[in-house]
Amino acid sequence: MRFTLLVLAAILVILLALWLPSRVNVLGKYTWLELTDAETGRKITAQAVKDGEEIVLTWRNSIFDLKVTEIFAAREGRLDLTEVTFEDPQGKTPPTVTPEHLDDLYHTGGPFRATGLSKPFTRIIFRVGEIGDPKLKFENQSIRLFDQVGFGGAVLLVASRPGFFSSLFFKWTPSKIRSFSDAPNAAWEVA
User: Fold this and answer.
1) Largest CA distance in the chain
2) How many domains is the chain built from?
3) E strand or H helix at 17, and its extent?
4) Mean pLDDT, the chain, as a whole number?
5) What is the pLDDT of residues 53-103, one digit of tens each?
6) What 3-state DSSP class applies to 42?
7) Half-sphere exposure of 65 (CA within 13 A, CB side)
C-alpha cells in the first residue's frame, strides 16, 4: 500500500514537472508569433518578439485604392491594434478620427488616421489579393504574403505567450528567425 502511494506520488510529480514548464513564460516579456498558410497548415515562420515591439501590416485597399497601414504592438501573448492609417492619395495628412469611428470608416472609405487604439487579437487571418499586396513587417524583417500563399490564399497569424518548448526552439534558432518556407524565393526579405 505504501509502495503504491509512493509510485503514484512519483508519477504525479513527474507529470507536474512536464506540464509546468509549458505554462510558464520562461522568456520573460515576449510574445510568440506563428505565421502559417491557413489552408495547408504549412509554417511560414515562428519566433518570439519583445513585448512592445511593433508589427506593421501594409496593404492597398482595392475598393478605395488607398494604402493602408495597421500597427500592432506585441503585449503579453497577444497583438493589440494601436493605429490605423488610410493614406491620402494626394500625400496630405489624413484627418485624425476617434477609435469609435474606426469600424465604419473601414467600410465607407476615405483617408483617415486612428490612434490610441487598443483592440486585442490572438488570431488574425489575412486574405491575400494581388491588388492589396499585403506585407507584414517586424524586427527589421518584411514578408510579402502574396509570395507565401499566392492570390486568393490566406495567412494565419497566431500570437501567444511563449512556453517552455517554444523557448527551447527560440534559443536554438541561430538568427532568432526561422523561416519554414518551401519556396526558395519566398524567404524573408530585408525591409
Assistant:
1) 82
2) 1
3) helix 2-23
4) 81
5) 999 999 999 889 999 999 999 999 999 999 999 999 999 999 999 999 998
6) coil
7) 2
